[in-house]
Amino acid sequence: AQSVAQPEDQVNVAEGNPLTVKCTYSVSGNPYLFWYVQYPNRGLQFLLKYITGDNLVKGSYGFEAEFNKSQTSFHLKKPSALVSDSALYFCAVRANTGGFKTIFGAGTRLFVKA
Amino acid sequence: ETGVTQTPRHLVMGMTNKKSLKCEQHLGHNAMYWYKQSAKKPLELMFVYNFKEQTENNSVPSRFSPECPNSSHLFLHLHTLQPEDSALYLCASSQGGSLADTGELFFGEGSRLTVL
Fold first, then answer.
1. C-alpha angle B87/B88/B91, rounded to 5°?
2. Do B102 and A32 touch (CB under 8 A)?
3. What is the pLDDT of residue B2?
4. N or C: less crowded end of chain B, CB within 10 Å?
5. Using the beta-carbon criterion (under 8 Å), do B102 and A49 form an inter-chain contact?
6. Which of chain A's residues have a Cβ under 8 Å away from the Cβ of B31?
C-alpha cells in the first residue's frame, strides 16, 4: 500500500532563511514523487516532481526537492524563503507500475515571517 | 486559471437533498479524479476515471455517485449525505492514457460542501 508522511503540521521560518518541509513515503516499486502548494480558498498547484534521473529536482518559484531512496524521503527545500511562500504544502506519491492512484500527505503549513 | 473548472464553488444542502458537483477540464486530458479534503487530514482519493472508465473507487460510500460522460466532464452526484461529509471536494485531471502519464495533477479550485 502507498502512504505519505509529513511529520510537521507547521514550519516557521524567517524571510531570507532557508526552508525545509519534510516528506517520507512508502510505495511498492519505484515512486513518482510530487510536491503541491495550496493557497487559501484555492485548489492545489503543482510545484515539482521526481520521476527518474537526478535526485535533485528543481521546480516553480525557486523550490527544489531531493529524492533519497535509502531514506525513502523527498524533502522540499528553498534557499531563501519569501513571505509569499506562506501556504499549505502537500507531498504526494504514485507507484510507477501504472494506474492513477496518487496518495497525498496531510500537508504542512509553512509560515514565513518578515 | 488552471484549466479545470468546478461548479458550484459553495454548496449547502440538507441530509435529504440531492445535488451534484460538476467539473470540466480544458486541457485535453484523459484522466479525471475526485478528492475529498477535510481539515487536518490527508487528501482522500475518491474516484479516478481514465478514458471515461472508472479505474479507482476508494471504498467510497454509495451516497456519492460519480459520472464521467466524456473525458472533459466529471460529476459527483450527492444523495442523503451526512454532516461528516462536509468538506472541500477537489476535481483534478492528468494526461491519462497509459504509461505516458507521469502523474502531474491539475486541480480545480474546489467545491466547498456543507451538509446540515
1. 135
2. yes
3. 75
4. N
5. yes
6. 100
CA B90-B93-B97 angle, 5° bins: 150
Which of the residues B52, B101, B102, B106 would you substitute to probe the A interface, choosing the one with the greatest number of A C-beta atoms within 10 Å? B102
Mean pLDDT of chain B: 91
Q: What is the DSSP letter of A11?
A: E
CA distances from B112 to A29, A36, A41, B9 (A): 35, 20, 9, 6
The set of cell numbers assigned to B80 is 442523503
Please give, rounded to a whole number of angstroms, the shortest distance from the CA of B40 to a CA of chain A: 6
Please tell me if residue A111 touches chain B, with a CB cutoff of 8 Å. no
In whole angstroms, what is the distance from residue A57 CA to residue A63 CA? 9
Q: Which residues contact A73 (CB under 8 A, 6 or more apart)?
A: A22, A23, A24, A25, A66, A67
State pLDDT tens for residues A6-52: 999 999 999 999 999 999 999 888 889 999 999 988 889 999 999 98
Distance CA B74, CA B110 (A): 13
Cα torsion B55, A52, B3, B30: sign = negative
